[in-house]
UniProtKB/TrEMBL annotation:
GO terms for molecular function: nucleic acid binding. Gene3D superfamilies: Ribonuclease H-like superfamily/Ribonuclease H. Residues 54-73 are annotated as: Disordered. This is Transposase InsO family protein. InterPro entries: DNA-bd_IS481-type (IPR024967), Homeodomain-like_sf (IPR009057), Integrase_cat-core (IPR001584), IS481-like_transpos (IPR047656), RNaseH-like_sf (IPR012337), RNaseH_sf (IPR036397).
Length: 314
């Protein structure tokens, strides 16, 4: 039972008060319990009338003469559910106020109606082995010298003219093993630098990358990036224009990074955030359960044990 925050006694204390009233009298028991004589008389009267639990009673009135007609409320809900009318139209038809219709629809879960047509679900796919396809993407992050409003909720605290960093991410389509780095920009030179670092990381895990998938950003469409892929013998797949879900694994990986690393802690500065990234990536790959890998860390799909301390921290 939830006791009111301003209640002076719990049911156990009320039972003790009743016993003291019977033993030493009403006035003395009330003074010893720190309550008024009126309160002590109330709980003693309820006990005498057979209320042995001495719980708080509901504050709901016995009668509500101005309560809205239940039949009208049901009709309003039916109009909202079947004809998808606005609150104003429903109130006009049924004879209720707009606020009453709004409260009833909120309580019934009809405040926000589902779309008439469900959005088409893109084709789901997963490569059969690690290294067949590597998803690449980038995300801009603001530099800061003190925590900003995203974590403090105080928009007066920010670092003016601090500039940006570029979070480059890579994730293997089959195993979901990820790799990320914070670089200065999103230029083709940075994209090539990151790709080489990612390939070295996956090679250390025994994974040989065969193809990469990117969006149509200028860095990935550059001649420098195309030349590097050709020299490495990697196939380049691009997403359809304005269709980010094609590269959905990288998009989802970025969301996880932002929620669990970038904005999960109040970092003193962006430098501290950058220093934390390798530690979080190690946790993501070797320890964090992943829904796409049956609740196990991504490296388990590479035949590794996520709890191997020597492999993870040498």
């Amino acid at each position: 039972m939830n006791v009111h925050k301003n209640a002076s006694m719990t049911p156990k204390g009320r039972a003790h008060l009743v016993r003291e009233v019977q033993r030493v009298g009403l006035t003395t028991a009330a003074a010893a319990a720190g309550v008024s004589v009126r309160t002590a008389r109330k709980w003693h009267r309820r006990y005498v009338q057979g209320d042995s639990e001495l719980l708080d009673r509901s504050s709901r009135p016995h009668r509500s003469p101005r309560r809205s007609d239940a039949a009208k409320v049901e009709r309003a809900l039916a109009l909202r559910r079947t004809q998808r009318l606005t609150y104003e139209r429903i109130a006009e038809r049924v004879g209720l106020s707009r606020s009453t219709v709004a409260r009833a629809c909120q309580a019934a879960g009809l405040a926000k109606l589902p779309p008439l047509q469900q959005r088409p679900v893109g084709p789901r796919y997963e490569r059969s082995s690690a290294g067949e396809l590597l998803h690449l993407d980038t995300k801009k992050l603001y530099r800061f010298e003190r925590p900003g409003h995203r974590v403090t909720a105080d928009r007066t605290q920010y670092t003016p003219h601090a500039g940006w960093q570029a979070l480059h991410v890579a994730i293997d389509d089959h195993s979901r093993v990820g790799f990320s780095q914070l670089l200065d920009d999103e230029t083709s030179r940075s994209a090539c630098t990151f790709l080489l670092a990612a390939l070295r990381y996956y090679a250390s895990l025994g994974v040989r990358v065969q193809a990469v998938m990117t969006d149509n950003g200028s860095a990935y469409k550059s001649r420098r990036f195309a030349t590097l892929l050709r020299r490495l013998g990697l196939r380049h797949l691009r997403t359809r224009p304005y269709t980010p879900r094609t590269n959905g694994k990288a998009e989802r990986f970025i969301q996880t990074l932002l929620r669990e690393w970038a904005y999960a802690y109040v970092y003193p500065s962006s430098r501290h955030r950058t220093e934390e990234l390798p530690h979080w990536m190690r946790y993501y790959n070797f320890h964090r359960p992943h829904s796409a890998t049956a609740g196990k860390p991504p490296v388990t799909r590479l035949g590794m044990n996520g709890n191997n301390v020597l492999r993870n921290y040498t």
